[in-house]
Automatic annotation (TrEMBL):
Binds 4 FAD per tetramer. Each FAD binding site is formed by three monomers. Catalyzes the reductive methylation of 2'-deoxyuridine-5'-monophosphate (dUMP) to 2'-deoxythymidine-5'-monophosphate (dTMP) while utilizing 5,10-methylenetetrahydrofolate (mTHF) as the methyl donor, and NADPH and FADH(2) as the reductant. Its EC number is 2.1.1.148. It comes from the Bacteria. Pfam families: Thy1 (PF02511). It is an enzyme of class 2 (transferase). Keywords: FAD, Flavoprotein, Methyltransferase, NADP, Nucleotide biosynthesis, Transferase. Belongs to the thymidylate synthase ThyX family. The gene is thyX. This is Flavin-dependent thymidylate synthase. One of its GO terms (molecular function) is NADPH binding. FAD binds at S74, R97, H98, R99, E105, N193, A194, R195, H199. It comes from Streptomyces curacoi. It catalyses: dUMP + (6R)-5,10-methylene-5,6,7,8-tetrahydrofolate + NADPH + H(+) = dTMP + (6S)-5,6,7,8-tetrahydrofolate + NADP(+).
Length: 250
C-alpha cells in the first residue's frame, strides 16, 4: 500500500514511500531429489554402480529414514535449492546467520534503494509478554496497529528524505544508506543444500512437535515456511523422514 503523510510536520515535505507486509520466496533453481540422497549414500557399498541405480519409493524412503535416524548427514548435501527472497533487511540478517548457505544481496553501495519498508499486517501478533526466551505473543488492538503504522511510516519517511537529500548532494551511496532502517526491503539470492535447509527450518520455524522447539521471529518464519513447502515438494521422502524424526537435521 502507499500511505499518505501522517505526521503534521512531514505533511508537505515527506517523500512517497511504500509500506509492505508481504515477504516473498521464489524457488528459482534447484537440483534436488530423494533419489540423489540414495545414490550418494549407496556409493559406499555399490561404488560406480550407485549413480545408475533406479529404486522404488519403498527402498528410497527406507534408506532415507535410516540415514535420518542414524544422523548420517552427508548424503543430504549433494543437491541444491536457490531461492530469491524479498524481505526486510532485519529478516535477511537472520537468514545470513546460517553459515552453510551462500548469499548474494542487492547492494546499497552500487544502486539507490527503493522507498519500500516493512510494516506488520493485521494478523501479526504485536505484543510480547514474559521473559526473554519465554515470550508469549498476543494480538494488538486496532489502535496498536495504527500506532505501529503511524510511527513506522513517520520514521521511514524522515529517514528516506535524508537519504535522498544526501544522494542529491552527491554523497556516496555507501554513506547515505547508513540512515535507512532495517525495515527497508532488500532482495537476496540464497542457496543451500537439504541438510543446511533442515537445520535452518529447525531453528526458524516454531513447531510444538519438534524435538527442540524454537521461537524464531515471525518474519523469518514466513521465509522458512515458504522454503519448506518447496523442499517438501522436491524431496517428499526426505521431508517426511525429517518430520518423523523430530525435525532435527541429520
Ligand atoms: C530463536 C533464535 C534466537 C536467536 N537469538 C540470537 C541472539 O540474540 N544473538 C545472536 O547473536 N544470535 C542469535 N541467534 C542466531 C544463532 O545464534 C545462530 O547464529 C543461528 O541460529 C545459526 O545457527 P547455527 O550457528 O547452528 O548454524 P549455521 O551457521 O547454519 O551452521 C550450521 C551448523 O554448522 C556448524 N558450524 C557452522 N559454523 C561453525 C563454526 N564456526 N564452528 C563450529 N561449528 C560450526 C554447527 O554445527 C552449526 O549448527 C538466534 C537464533 C534463533 C533461532
Amino acid at each position: 500500500m502507499t500511505v499518505t503523510p501522517v505526521h503534521p510536520a512531514e505533511a508537505t515535505t515527506g517523500p512517497e514511500i511504500e509500506l509492505r507486509s508481504r515477504i516473498t520466496v521464489e524457488l528459482v533453481d534447484h537440483a534436488a531429489s530423494d533419489i540423489g540422497v540414495v545414490r550418494a549414500a549407496r556409493v559406499s557399498t555399490a561404488g560406480e554402480r550407485a549413480h545408475r541405480e533406479e529404486r522404488g519409493d519403498d527402498y528410497i524412503g527406507g534408506l532415507i529414514r535410516y540415514l535420518m535416524r542414524s544422523r548420517h548427514g552427508s548424503p543430504f548435501e549433494h543437491n541444491y535449492m536457490t531461492f530469491l527472497v524479498n524481505a526486510p533487511i532485519f529478516t535477511i540478517r537472520h537468514m545470513m546467520r546460517h553459515r552453510t548457505w551462500s548469499f548474494n544481496e542487492e547492494s546499497a553501495r552500487y544502486k539507490d534503494l527503493e522507498s519500500v519498508f516493512y510494516v506488520p499486517d493485521s494478523d501479526r501478533l504485536l505484543k510480547q509478554e514474559g521473559k526473554p526466551g519465554h515470550y508469549q505473543y498476543v494480538p494488538g488492538t486496532e489502535e496498536d496497529h495504527e500506532l505501529v503504522t503511524t510511527s513506522a511510516s513517520t520514521a521511514y519517511r524522515a529517514a528516506f528524505r535524508e537519504y535522498q537529500r544526501m544522494l542529491d548532494a552527491g554523497i556516496a551511496r555507501e554513506l547515505a544508506r547508513t540512515v535507512l532502517p532495517v525495515a527497508t526491503y532488500s532482495t537476496v539470492y540464497a542457496t543451500c543444500n537439504a541438510r543446511s535447509l533442515m537445520h535452518f527450518l529447525s531453528l526458524r520455524t516454531n513447531r510444538a512437535d519438534a524435538t527442540y522447539v524454537s521461537h524464531p521471529q515471525r518474519e523469518v518464519e514466513i521465509v522458512a515456511e515458504q522454503m519448506e513447502s518447496e523442499f517438501a515438494r522436491l524431496m517428499p521422502l526426505t521431508h517426511a523422514a525429517y518430520e518423523s524424526y523430530g525435525r532435527v537435521s541429520p
